[in-house]
Amino acid sequence: MTRGPTLPAHPYPSARVAIPALPEQTRTPPPATAVEGFNTAPADEVHSTLTTCLHSTRWAHRITAHRPYPDLDSLLAAADEAAYDLTPAEVSEALAGESLPTLPEGTYSAAHTALSAAHAAYEARFGHVFVIYLGDAAPEEALDRILEGIRSRLANDPDEERVVAAEQLRRLARGRLMTHLRGAGNCATSPNGAAPGN
Predict the structure, then answer these.
(1) How far apart are CA 85 and CA 82, in angstroms?
(2) Which SS3 state, helix, strand or coil, does residue 6 take?
(3) SS3 content of the chain, % helix, strand, coil (to 5)
(4) Are 25 and 136 in contact (CB under 8 A)?
(5) 24-184 — its CATH code?
């Protein structure tokens, strides 16, 4: 059986999904100095970095304002708590900021078609982008997990799906923050770098 041609990375402009770059289990922990760098970096740089992790101004402000953090666990706990406290309007703000990912090289046209149709159905039903945390998935499993996630979540009522989407945003924010801290070393901000999934 011959395979169809591959498509460019962004064949479905109206449908978006957030995908972290690598499975969480393959990543190393941030260096010990990362939290120290996060604590001492200028507030505007930290705030800018945090808004690439989760597109919520209040979330970023809250985490920035509560520095210094004694350790990584404290910082991650604060990020989780701030994400749990997002209002429905702030969840909408965060969802609106999610952007289209680059799909894996060699993704076949049939997969693009299925994904495009699933995204369209999801956005028509819920009125916002589909987000899913895939940090625990191997890259080759990403498309299947996305399709499975969309199809199963289409059965949710809108209120239930907002709760699920908010939890996925929290997990994405935590994963992106960890990525920034890992890559930052002594300077735990990288305002010019895109977070995974962006």
Answers:
(1) 5
(2) strand
(3) 55, 0, 40
(4) yes
(5) 1.10.3330.10
Query: Are 125 and 154 spatial neighbours (Cβ–Cβ below 8 Å)?
Result: yes
Closest by CA to 180, choosing from 42, 25, 51, 23, is 51
Q: What percent of the chain has pLDDT over 90?
A: 55
Sequence ranges of the domains in the chain: 24-184
Q: What residues contact 60, with CB distance under 8 A and at least 6 apart?
A: 47, 50, 51, 53, 54
Residues with Cβ within 8 Å of 13's Cβ and at least 6 positions away in sequence, in order, are 100
**pLDDT value at position 184?**
64
The pLDDT value recorded for residue 103 is 63
pLDDT in tens, 39-78: 999 999 999 999 999 999 999 999 999 999 999 999 999 9
Phi-psi group of 106: left, alpha or beta (phi > 0 → left; psi -120 to 50 → alpha; rest → beta)? left
The pLDDT tens digits for 83-93 are 999 999 999 99
Residue with tokens 């200028």: 42
Query: In this structure, what is the dihedral angle of CA atoms 114, 143, 181, 93, given to the nearest 10 degrees?
Result: 30
